[in-house]
Amino acid sequence: MLTGDSMYVCANQLDNLPFMLPHAAGTLLMPRLEAAQQPAHLAHTTSSHSLPSGMTGSVLVSGGLGDIGRLAGQWVAAAAPRSHVWLLGRSGRAAHSMSSALAHQLGHISMAAVDVAVASDTNGLLGQLTAVGAPAVSGLLHAGAVLQDALLRGQTAASLRAVHAPKVTGALRLAGAAAAMPLQGAVQFSSLSALLGTPGQSNYAATNAALDGLAQEW
Question: Considering the domain boundaries, does residue 12 fall inside one?
Answer without folding.
Answer: no
